[in-house]
Design a protein that fits this description.
This protein is an alpha+beta fold and 377 residues long. The chain is built from 14 helices and 15 strands. The chain has helices at 5-12, 61-80, 99-112, 123-128, 168-182, 190-200, 206-211, 236-241, 256-265, 269-276, 291-302, 309-312, 329-337, 349-355, and strands spanning 16-21, 25-30, 38-41, 43-45, 52-54, 88-93, 117-122, 136-141, 146-152, 155-156, 162-164, 224-226, 232-234, 279-282, 347-348. The chain has a six-stranded mixed beta sheet with strand order 3-2-1-6-7-15, sandwiched between helices. Helix 2 (61-80) packs across helix 3 and helix 5 packs across helix 6 (190-200).
């Protein structure tokens, strides 16, 4: 039975909606809940061309606006089942996210859906709220990129941020290229590749990886059959090499593992050991089998090299285990944040319509108590 607008309005009472709009998947649900209500692809069918498009593959601001209108309409009325009018929304965002996306998202929510307020919550900072700690080095490896921000006593050390275009996308590209060479007559789609990656691929050990490109190349793991419309045999070599792009250093000697060491080096000396012993991995790519183990082996090997040994003097790296799967740890942090009644900065509809802009809280102008963007409690 179809819900009426009044039914949805009643569902809104005392509900704070949490959105984590990632480049590949979007997590949504309500504050105070231990899991998202659902996880859907961040894509929508264009009403004009009927083409399925990813939200982050927008052409310009106007195109992004239309995509967000369609996508958020589906989120509110088909998935979250809540009337957006005057509701409170928390958006999990990366501190490195484009300002264009943030501003357009706020415009759509306030002007088109007429929500009551938005809280833009940094995903890295929200993630450590699930642990009950004040300091951590948060590495987020998602679909398009890997981003890293050290947080000490709940303050992000922004001068030490790191980012590389390494994530699920490069793994998918490798698998698609490899499988198309083996099966030129099979339609290899990205959804198929993603399922093959999750079901059959893994991160190999550092010892085996060192031999893969040498004459001492070890015997490959067994090939496996992927069942589908047409059965596909996934060679063991492809399964093992799928994640190697994350660890291969580029022309600037950068990789996933060097991101962590470089970030620690840029932090104050008295924070370095604490950060090294409080690493938190989030993002869907970190859920791959063997990822955490390989990362630790890479760090322990690199920290003994001439580049880092004299500067860091660190011998131990330790991980936190969040009370959630890594792909929605940030969302859970937002759900926890939405339940507490703290003096927080949130942007109300009235203030947004008056100014027409989203405040930048690192700007002194937006931190004055006499400004319209001052604390809203």
């Amino acid at each position: 039975m179809m819900r009426t607008y009044e039914d949805l309005r009643l569902l809104r009472e005392n509900k704070v909606v949490i959105f984590d709009i990632g480049s590949a998947y979007t997590k949504f649900g309500y504050a105070g809940e231990p899991n998202p209500r659902g996880i859907i692809r961040t894509e929508i069918k264009c009403p004009e061309t009927k083409e399925l498009r990813k939200i982050y593959d927008y052409k310009n601001t106007e195109d992004l606006y239309q995509l967000l209108v369609e996508f958020l309409h589906v989120l509110f009325f088909r998935h979250v089942l809540i009337s957006p009018k005057d509701s409170r929304v928390i958006i999990l965002e990366s501190l490195l996210a484009p300002t264009q996306f943030r501003d357009t998202l706020a415009k759509v929510l306030f002007r088109h859906f007429e929500i009551g307020s938005i809280t833009f919550l940094p995903a890295h900072l929200a993630s450590i709220g699930t642990l009950g700690v004040n300091s951590a080095l948060v590495l987020d490896v998602g679909y398009k990129e890997a981003t890293l921000i050290p947080i000490f006593e709940r303050i992000p050390i922004l001068k030490a941020w790191q980012a590389l275009p390494l994530g699920g996308k490069v793994i998918h590209e490798y698998l698609m290229k490899s499988l198309k060479e083996i099966y030129p007559n099979v339609d290899i789609t990205e959804k198929l590749v993603e399922d093959i990656k999750v079901r059959t691929c893994f991160v190999t050990t550092l010892e085996r990886a060192a031999k893969l490109a040498t004459a001492e190349m070890p015997n490959p793991p067994p090939a496996v059959k992927y069942p589908g419309i047409k059965s596909i045999i996934i060679p063991g070599e492809v399964r093992e090499k799928a994640f190697e792009m994350l660890w291969e250093r580029d022309n600037d000697n950068l990789s996933i593992s060097t991101m962590i060491l470089n970030a620690i080096m840029q932090c104050p000396i008295d924070t370095r050991r604490t950060l090294a012993e409080n690493i938190l991995l989030i993002g869907g790519t970190t859920m791959a089998k063997g990822f955490a183990s390989r990362l630790k082996s890479e760090l322990l090997t690199l920290v003994k090299s001439n580049i880092y040994f004299e500067k860091l003097k660190i011998e131990t790296f330790m991980y936190h285990t969040a009370p959630s799967k890594p792909n929605y740890t940030a969302w859970l942090g937002g759900a926890i944040f939405g339940t507490v009644n703290l003096p927080v900065r949130y942007l109300t509809k009235e203030n947004y319509l008056k100014s027409g802009r989203v405040p930048d809280w690192v700007n002194l102008m937006d931190n004055q108590k006499d400004e319209s963007f001052a604390y809203n409690i």
